[in-house]
């Protein structure tokens, strides 16, 4: 789900800071930081302890996003009452199925589950029930739903987040990093219990439980068609052969990054891909000049004018990619744009389908009112894409059951279907289809 963001400031920064609550810092687990589990014997002992524990199990994972290729887990943290706190190295112990068996059907407690479920599944950890304290916080109406903010709200303590962007593939992991990671699960079940009560008191517990149940089938973000088209700066490129250069360079970079286990952006920034696609170099000297060029007007100054290390280290591969495009026949070049299967941009609706435009505007307004009344973000009621598809593709004859069926096919939960359907029905009645 999309974050809602912090509350808009209503005072000057200094006044807001002066009036902000001052929370004590939670800086160490109650029982200290345990040793990292790196062998099967210790893993088995941890599984036995977890199986003997009771209640939900708090879990978290640390990845090396921005440093390594992909999103694999480099540290897994677990805590359960009656069992204790465990830090596991999934590189040294890549099969955590003994831990999964020990948890059994006990509820997992995670924060922002969609960030971790896929990488946890890769090491054999798959929940049978879960509670997401970020998603639950949204439904509960919290204005800020980051882990530290949620803990502040419910427990009146705060977490230090100084290692959130660390390279967790580092070995050995420094003790301050481990302490930070351990704290992510130290009080998570306490937060879960208080949030559960909050949701129940507000009549929104069933909403949250339906959303949590839907997360059990989450396997990761959807695979995108032509992911190279999401290269930053692509909007500057229109000519098809230049697009082909972006594609070839992106695919070459991706293959190298996968092979070297390096984040693609560290191997070669998107800005250099776009620069090479716009003005293709033909020699090592051209590459050096490109990498050392001064920053564009308005861009922050670089610390060094030295070419990016990946630009020169893999110059043979970049030049070969550009040469393949140079001799590529016209028919093999990518189209300038790809038409999606979704509706057109909303700004075009008024001209192309004024009835749909009026319906969408009305439903959005009334969803906004519903969200305000129930303290639920609009994106947690219905995804913008689902709403656009529903209304744009509406047949001329449309009844409530058809609307419900269509929403469900887009993945809406029953509570969302119940909330959205009457608003769409009313919009259809207020803006009937024309014969044009």
UniProtKB/TrEMBL annotation:
InterPro entries: 3'-5'_exonuclease_dom, Exo_C, HRDC-like_sf, HRDC_dom, HRDC_dom_sf, RNase_D-like, RNaseH-like_sf, RNaseH_sf
Claim: Hydrolase is one of the keywords in the record: yes
Top-level taxon of the source organism: Bacteria
SMART domains assigned to the protein according to its UniProt record, in alphabetical order: 35EXOc (SM00474), HRDC (SM00341)
Record-listed E.C. numbers: 3.1.13.5
Residues annotated as domain HRDC: 239-325
Record's keyword terms, sorted: Hydrolase
One of the GO biological process terms: nucleobase-containing compound metabolic process
Gene Ontology MF terms: 3'-5' exonuclease activity; nucleic acid binding; nucleotide binding; ribonuclease D activity
Span list, region Disordered: 1-31, 284-308
Protein name in UniProt: Ribonuclease D
């Amino acid at each position: 789900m999309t974050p809602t963001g912090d509350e808009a400031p209503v005072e000057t920064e200094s006044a807001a800071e002066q009036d902000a609550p001052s929370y004590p810092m939670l800086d160490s687990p109650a029982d200290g930081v345990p040793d990292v589990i790196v062998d099967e014997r210790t893993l088995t002992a941890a599984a036995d302890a977890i199986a003997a524990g009771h209640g939900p199990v708090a879990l978290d994972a640390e990845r090396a996003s921005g440093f390594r290729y992909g999103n694999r887990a480099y540290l897994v943290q677990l805590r359960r009452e009656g069992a204790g706190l465990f830090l596991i190295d999934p590189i040294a112990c890549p099969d955590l199925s003994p831990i999964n068996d020990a948890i059994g059907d006990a509820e997992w407690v995670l924060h922002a589950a969609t960030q971790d479920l896929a990488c946890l599944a890769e090491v054999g950890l798959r929940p049978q029930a879960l509670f997401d304290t970020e998603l639950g916080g949204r439904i509960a109406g919290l204005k800020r739903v980051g882990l530290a903010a949620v803990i502040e709200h419910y427990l009146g303590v705060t977490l230090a987040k100084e290692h959130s962007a660390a390279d967790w593939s580092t070995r050995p992991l420094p003790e301050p990093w481990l302490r930070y990671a351990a704290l992510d699960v130290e009080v998570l079940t306490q937060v879960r219990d208080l949030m559960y009560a909050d949701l129940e008191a507000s009549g929104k517990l069933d909403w949250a439980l339906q959303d949590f149940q839907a997360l059990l089938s989450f396997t990761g973000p959807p695979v995108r068609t032509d992911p190279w088209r999401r290269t930053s700066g692509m909007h500057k490129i229109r000519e098809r052969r230049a697009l082909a250069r972006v594609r070839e360079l992106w695919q070459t970079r991706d293959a190298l990054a996968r092979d070297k286990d390096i984040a693609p952006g560290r191997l070669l920034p998107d800005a250099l891909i776009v620069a090479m696609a716009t003005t293709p170099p033909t020699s090592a000297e051209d590459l050096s000049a490109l990498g050392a060029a001064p920053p564009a007007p308005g861009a922050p100054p670089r610390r060094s004018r030295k070419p990016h290390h990946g630009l020169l280290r893999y110059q043979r591969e970049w030049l070969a990619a550009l040469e393949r495009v140079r001799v590529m026949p016209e028919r093999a070049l990518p189209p300038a744009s790809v038409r999606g299967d979704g509706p057109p941009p909303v700004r075009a609706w008024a001209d192309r389908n004024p009835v749909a435009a009026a319906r969408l505007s009305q439903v959005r307004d009334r969803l906004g009112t519903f969200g305000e009344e129930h303290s639920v973000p609009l994106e947690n009621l219905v995804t913008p894409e689902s709403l656009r598809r529903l209304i744009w593709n509406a047949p001329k004859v449309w009844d409530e059951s058809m609307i419900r069926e269509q929403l469900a096919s887009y993945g809406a939960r029953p509570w969302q279907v119940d909330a959205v359907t009457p608003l769409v029905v009313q919009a259809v009645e207020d803006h009937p289809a024309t014969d044009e």
